[in-house]
Amino acid sequence: MSAERVRAAFEEHGIDYELNEHPQAMTAQEMAAAEHRPGWQVAKPVFLWGGGELVMLVMPAPLEVDLDEAAAALGLERMRLATEEEFTEQFPDCEGGAEVPFGNFYDMPVYVEERLLEEAQITFAFGRHDQAATISVEDYVSMAQPTRVHVGTAMSQ
After folding, report:
1. Which of 23, 107, 123, 141 could hold 134 in an S-S bridge, CB 3.0 to 4.6 Å?
2. Contact by Cβ (8 Å): 41, 60
3. DSSP letters spanning 35-60
4. d(CA 93, CA 70)
5. What's the burial of 58, exposed, middle or buried (CB within 10 Å: 0-12/13-18/19+)?
6. 60 strand-pairing partners
Protein backbone atom coordinates (compact mmCIF):
# COMPACT_ATOMS: atom_id res chain seq x y z
CA MET A 1 0.00 0.00 0.00
CA SER A 2 1.85 3.05 -1.21
CA ALA A 3 -0.16 5.61 -3.18
CA GLU A 4 -0.22 3.56 -6.38
CA ARG A 5 -2.56 6.00 -8.19
CA VAL A 6 -0.17 8.87 -7.60
CA ARG A 7 2.92 6.79 -8.38
CA ALA A 8 1.37 5.73 -11.71
CA ALA A 9 0.44 9.33 -12.56
CA PHE A 10 3.97 10.54 -11.74
CA GLU A 11 5.45 7.89 -14.01
CA GLU A 12 2.94 8.54 -16.80
CA HIS A 13 3.67 12.28 -16.79
CA GLY A 14 7.42 12.01 -16.20
CA ILE A 15 7.29 13.73 -12.81
CA ASP A 16 10.62 13.62 -10.99
CA TYR A 17 10.18 12.66 -7.36
CA GLU A 18 12.40 11.56 -4.53
CA LEU A 19 11.07 8.75 -2.37
CA ASN A 20 12.48 8.23 1.13
CA GLU A 21 11.80 5.83 3.95
CA HIS A 22 12.04 7.15 7.50
CA PRO A 23 11.01 6.09 11.01
CA GLN A 24 7.24 5.98 11.41
CA ALA A 25 5.82 9.51 11.69
CA MET A 26 2.19 10.05 12.65
CA THR A 27 2.07 13.83 12.15
CA ALA A 28 3.36 16.18 9.48
CA GLN A 29 5.69 17.84 12.01
CA GLU A 30 7.13 14.43 12.95
CA MET A 31 7.65 13.69 9.25
CA ALA A 32 9.40 17.05 8.79
CA ALA A 33 11.81 16.09 11.57
CA ALA A 34 12.33 12.58 10.16
CA GLU A 35 12.98 14.00 6.69
CA HIS A 36 15.18 16.85 8.00
CA ARG A 37 12.97 19.42 6.26
CA PRO A 38 11.41 22.65 7.50
CA GLY A 39 7.73 22.21 8.33
CA TRP A 40 6.88 24.85 5.72
CA GLN A 41 7.99 22.37 3.03
CA VAL A 42 5.86 19.51 4.38
CA ALA A 43 2.34 19.19 3.02
CA LYS A 44 -0.45 17.74 5.12
CA PRO A 45 -3.91 17.02 3.77
CA VAL A 46 -6.79 18.14 5.97
CA PHE A 47 -10.25 16.84 5.12
CA LEU A 48 -13.29 19.08 5.49
CA TRP A 49 -17.03 18.76 5.04
CA GLY A 50 -18.91 21.72 3.67
CA GLY A 51 -21.93 22.17 1.47
CA GLY A 52 -22.54 18.42 1.52
CA GLU A 53 -19.13 17.74 0.00
CA LEU A 54 -15.86 16.29 1.25
CA VAL A 55 -12.87 18.42 0.23
CA MET A 56 -9.13 18.22 0.72
CA LEU A 57 -7.23 21.22 2.00
CA VAL A 58 -3.43 20.90 1.77
CA MET A 59 -1.58 22.85 4.45
CA PRO A 60 2.06 23.36 5.45
CA ALA A 61 2.82 21.36 8.60
CA PRO A 62 3.10 24.35 11.00
CA LEU A 63 -0.39 25.66 10.21
CA GLU A 64 -3.87 24.54 11.12
CA VAL A 65 -7.03 25.39 9.24
CA ASP A 66 -9.23 28.28 10.31
CA LEU A 67 -12.65 26.80 9.60
CA ASP A 68 -14.36 30.19 9.33
CA GLU A 69 -11.79 31.35 6.77
CA ALA A 70 -12.08 28.05 4.91
CA ALA A 71 -15.86 28.35 4.71
CA ALA A 72 -15.57 31.93 3.46
CA ALA A 73 -12.93 30.97 0.87
CA LEU A 74 -15.19 28.20 -0.45
CA GLY A 75 -18.30 30.39 -0.37
CA LEU A 76 -20.01 28.40 2.36
CA GLU A 77 -21.67 29.31 5.64
CA ARG A 78 -19.65 26.79 7.61
CA MET A 79 -17.32 23.81 7.39
CA ARG A 80 -16.20 21.14 9.78
CA LEU A 81 -13.27 18.77 9.99
CA ALA A 82 -14.09 15.36 8.59
CA THR A 83 -13.58 12.28 10.72
CA GLU A 84 -11.04 9.70 9.59
CA GLU A 85 -13.89 7.26 8.91
CA GLU A 86 -15.38 9.74 6.43
CA PHE A 87 -12.38 9.83 4.10
CA THR A 88 -10.09 6.81 4.52
CA GLU A 89 -12.13 4.54 2.24
CA GLN A 90 -11.60 7.01 -0.61
CA PHE A 91 -7.84 6.31 -0.39
CA PRO A 92 -7.63 2.50 -0.67
CA ASP A 93 -3.92 2.62 -1.55
CA CYS A 94 -2.94 4.73 1.49
CA GLU A 95 -2.72 4.01 5.20
CA GLY A 96 -5.20 6.02 7.26
CA GLY A 97 -3.55 9.31 8.19
CA ALA A 98 -0.91 9.01 5.42
CA GLU A 99 -3.04 10.14 2.49
CA VAL A 100 -1.33 11.89 -0.40
CA PRO A 101 -2.17 15.57 -1.11
CA PHE A 102 -3.74 14.72 -4.48
CA GLY A 103 -7.46 14.49 -3.77
CA ASN A 104 -8.14 14.98 -7.47
CA PHE A 105 -6.89 11.41 -8.08
CA TYR A 106 -9.51 10.24 -5.57
CA ASP A 107 -12.54 12.21 -6.83
CA MET A 108 -12.15 15.05 -4.34
CA PRO A 109 -11.62 18.79 -4.90
CA VAL A 110 -8.22 20.06 -3.75
CA TYR A 111 -7.52 23.42 -2.12
CA VAL A 112 -4.04 24.47 -1.09
CA GLU A 113 -2.97 26.99 1.54
CA GLU A 114 -1.03 29.40 -0.66
CA ARG A 115 1.87 29.69 1.78
CA LEU A 116 2.82 26.09 0.97
CA LEU A 117 3.43 27.18 -2.62
CA GLU A 118 6.11 29.68 -1.58
CA GLU A 119 8.63 26.83 -1.31
CA ALA A 120 10.54 25.31 -4.24
CA GLN A 121 9.72 21.75 -3.17
CA ILE A 122 7.19 20.00 -1.00
CA THR A 123 7.43 16.73 0.90
CA PHE A 124 4.43 14.61 1.84
CA ALA A 125 3.47 11.18 3.14
CA PHE A 126 3.40 8.78 0.22
CA GLY A 127 0.63 6.52 1.42
CA ARG A 128 2.51 5.17 4.43
CA HIS A 129 3.59 6.60 7.76
CA ASP A 130 7.20 5.61 7.04
CA GLN A 131 7.52 6.89 3.49
CA ALA A 132 7.71 10.40 2.04
CA ALA A 133 7.94 11.83 -1.44
CA THR A 134 9.42 15.17 -2.47
CA ILE A 135 8.52 16.96 -5.69
CA SER A 136 8.79 20.49 -7.04
CA VAL A 137 5.95 22.85 -6.18
CA GLU A 138 5.53 23.46 -9.91
CA ASP A 139 4.92 19.73 -10.49
CA TYR A 140 2.58 19.58 -7.50
CA VAL A 141 0.42 22.40 -8.87
CA SER A 142 0.45 20.81 -12.33
CA MET A 143 -0.62 17.40 -11.03
CA ALA A 144 -3.01 18.35 -8.19
CA GLN A 145 -4.54 21.39 -9.90
CA PRO A 146 -5.51 22.90 -6.54
CA THR A 147 -7.46 26.06 -5.88
CA ARG A 148 -5.30 28.47 -3.88
CA VAL A 149 -6.71 29.77 -0.60
CA HIS A 150 -5.46 31.60 2.48
CA VAL A 151 -7.02 29.76 5.42
CA GLY A 152 -4.20 28.79 7.78
CA THR A 153 -3.39 29.98 11.25
CA ALA A 154 -0.44 29.20 13.51
CA MET A 155 -0.94 25.99 15.43
CA SER A 156 -1.84 26.43 19.07
CA GLN A 157 0.44 24.68 21.53
Report:
1. 123
2. yes
3. HT--GGGBEEEEEEEETTEEEEEEEE
4. 27
5. buried
6. 43
